[in-house]
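Because showing beats explaining, we let one protein speak, sequence and backbone structure tokens together, and leave readers to judge.
___
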Amino acid sequence: MLEVPQKKARPLSPHLQIYRSMFTMMMSIVHRMTGGALYVGTLLVVWWLVAAAIGPEAFAVANDFFGSIIGRLILFGYTWALLHHMLGGLRHFAWDTGHGFGPEWREILAKANLAGSITLTILIWIVGYLVR
């Protein structure tokens, strides 16, 4: 009878249960999450633009939604997601140029990404309310 060779058991790839949690790892996960959230936020921007094109009644409905507490929280989150994802992209761009790979710089850039996105979001909203 013909023997079928058995495949050797391959080692499992380490995952989140194996690695100890690092700040840069968390920022990588958040970068992916903000990228996904930007899809939803962009659909809301499209809804607003389509409502403006349809007419004043549809535009009023969209403006009422975005003017509500829930709408403003969503817009605030969208602003933060956009800025956080953009700054994360700039961090990856710096890595593409060969800079910032050292352990110290990885941590500094990850913390700057988070602090910068929060600070810029708050500043944009303050300026928005002052201009309004």
